[in-house]
Amino acid sequence: MPNCEDIVSEEQFWGKDGDVLFSAVRLNGFRLTDWFPRAPGVYWSRHARQAREYVYSEEPHSDPGLGRYYSPQSKMALIEEGGIGTIRLRSRRIDGEVCWLGTALSRSQCHSGIPLAIPDAAIRCAGVYWGDRVNIQGRVRFLQDAGLDETAARVHHARPLIVFVDKLEGIVSRPLPEPIVISPVALFESRSDREYDRAHYTFVQCGSGSDAELDIAVECIERYTTVSVRGNHLFG
User: Fold this and answer.
1) pLDDT digits (tens, 9 = 90+) for 106-117
2) How many structural domains comprise the chain?
3) 59 lies in a domain?
4) Structural domain that includes position 36
């Protein structure tokens, strides 16, 4: 691929901001996951770093079942302002091809990664699986080109970029890499002391690719929403 820019980390990609738009790129040594950043690029902004530092400087609450935890307001700040949170999207037809929507990451946190639109044919040809380490060739376009313009439309500092993959090449890596960490996001409502419904976000972090871990994550989210409703006077 002529005039192809080599990228070796998420930080490098997002640090270029819009300079990579419509560019041909080669993502070297990245891992694949079928989860997707809720707000692409936000994690790497200065605003998001400050938001995370502010929340984590606070003293968390404590619950016998949950352990140490942060209030719904703090969780929402981490999601909306701090760039934390992942979602799972169905495959869709883009430019006449069935594509999977996933993420490339050189580290372990999915929400900091690079969004991908991967043709099903490219995955089959490469013989790779989710979690594998790969080299990726593609071109940077807008999320809107993949029908994803609403994914981060209401999030400040989001960068609506995605790599349309042309080619994948699997890499044999030893030892086995650390688990890919996802942060599934859930929306729930509680009733405040002023008697009106309030919407809150929460999330929990777990490893991808394991149904057992996802089941535990769901249980944690359900427990969190129960504690939040019960202790609503703490958060109003």
Assistant:
1) 999 999 999 999
2) 1
3) no
4) 4-42+87-171
Distance spanning both ends of the chain, measured CA to CA: 55
For residue 101, which phi and psi values (nearest 5 degrees)? -105, 115
pLDDT value at position 68?
86
Residue 117 lies in a domain: yes
> Would you say residue 79 lies in a domain?
no
CB-side exposure of 60: number of CA atoms within 13 Å? 10
| CATH number of the structural domain spanning residue 123 | 2.40.50.140
Question: What are the Cα distances from residue 21, in Å, to 17, 45, 54, 60, 185?
Answer: 8, 17, 32, 40, 28
Burial class (CB in 10 A: 0-12, 13-18, 19+), 21: middle
115: in domain: yes
Query: Torsion over CA of 225, 81, 42 and 111, rounded to 10 degrees?
Result: -20
Amino acid at 153: A
Write the DSSP symbol of residue 59.
P
pLDDT digits (tens, 9 = 90+) for 163-199: 999 999 999 766 666 889 999 998 887 655 444 456 7
Non-local CB neighbours of 90 within 8 Å, separated by 6+ positions: 101
> Residue 136 half-sphere exposure, CB side, CA atoms within 13 Å?
32
> What DSSP element (H or E) covers 30?
strand 24-33
